[in-house]
Write a structure and sequence with these properties.
Blueprint lengths: L1 H5 L1 H35 L2 H16 L2 H22 L9 H27 L2 H9 L4 H31 L11 H12 L2 H30 L3 H4 L1
Helix pairs in contact: 2-3, 2-5, 2-8, 3-5, 4-5, 5-7, 7-9, 8-9
Length: 229
């Protein structure tokens, strides 16, 4: 226990890296998911096919394999391009490699989450808004997007919880996140069990806090639904 207290500031820094990695990855996944859903719903045949290939590939490749492909393959690709234009080779950041890999994977899941939420919106509400003269951005901002958020929130929260756990895999490429630092500290102090129990507690704390936050957001967007029914 004394070893855990001594390394507590270091682990706190690792926890901050983990949370930052998860939040930025979720932002990227949200952008990819929104674009993918738009492509599946209103895109051309080519666009729908491209999105289908993306979602199938991203959901079929294990997280660890994707992270290794992005980190080592991405680094080689970038340096090949730099070499072709006469640039100096660089080292790809483990943090941003993790962001790209995780965001790419979970963007595929959010594509289906957003698509399903959009298809749940009653068509009568959109038709009624159009009858009132709402068009384009005004219609989507006032009618479509609030409904989409409401229906997508449960799936979105679930994707976030799974995404948070996936951040632990990024430690295999050398990222000094919570898992990576706890592993190093546990080996140094020769008490790996204690340190990984602490990691478990931190991840449970993150998921518990996330559950509370998403429950409050869902209640906010569900106001008036009971009366409407």
């Amino acid at each position: 226990m004394e070893s855990l207290i001594r390394y507590a500031p270091l682990l706190a820094g690792g926890a901050l890296v983990t949370v930052s990695l998860a939040v930025i990855s979720l932002f990227l996944a949200t952008c990819l998911g929104a674009l993918g859903a738009a492509g599946r719903i209103g895109g051309s045949k080519f666009g729908k096919g491209a999105v289908l290939v993306y979602t199938t590939m991203a959901r079929g490749i294990p997280d660890l394999v994707m992270i290794l492909l992005v980190y080592f393959g991405g680094q080689r690709l970038v340096n090949t391009i730099l070499n072709a234009v006469g640039g100096e080779p660089i080292n790809v950041s483990t943090f941003w490699a993790g962001v790209v890999a995780i965001g790419f994977i979970y963007g595929a899941y959010l594509t289906e989450t957003f698509r399903g939420a959009y298809q749940t919106i009653p068509k009568g509400q959109v038709e009624a808004a159009q009858a009132l003269g709402l068009r384009g951005f005004i219609l989507h901002w006032n009618v479509t997007i609030p409904q989409l958020i409401r229906f997508a929130l449960p799936g979105y929260a679930n994707v976030w919880q799974v995404l948070v756990k996936s951040t632990a895999v990024v430690s295999v490429i050398g990222l000094k996140d919570l898992v990576g630092l706890a592993n190093d500290a546990g080996k140094t102090a020769r008490e790996p069990f204690i340190f990984f129990v602490a990691v478990l507690a931190v991840y449970l704390l993150i998921t518990w806090a996330s559950t509370l936050i998403f429950e409050r957001i869902e209640k906010r967007y569900s106001v008036g639904m009971a009366n409407a029914r």
